[in-house]
Amino acid sequence: MRLYKITANDGTAGSETHWVGSKAEGVAKRKQLATEGWTRKEIDEVEVEVPTNKEGLLQWLNTGAC
To answer: What angle do CA 59, 62, 66 make, to 5 degrees?
Structure first.
């Protein structure tokens, strides 16, 4: 399963992380973060492949990948 991790980080203590399920949701979330005052260079999007089988998902969760 493909998810997108949207991170807004201003280089200090301020940061936000959001998970979305599609590129369209990612665009909407980045737009929302921009209207909240985050600059474009502070917002990052990473595509993450999440395993869907039970063993793989538990391993992914336990490694702190999220």
So the answer is: 100
Q: What would the pLDDT profile of 22-31 be if each residue is shown by its tens digit? A: 999 999 999 9
What is the pTM (predicted TM-score) of this model? 0.82
What's the mean pLDDT in 1-20?
Answer: 90
**Closest by Cα among 41, 40, 50 to 19:** 50
| Residues paired with 2 in a beta bridge | 49
Helix (H) or strand (E) holding 24: helix 23-35
Sheet order of strands, 2-9 included: 15-20, 2-9, 43-49
Give the H/E segment covering residue 54: helix 54-62
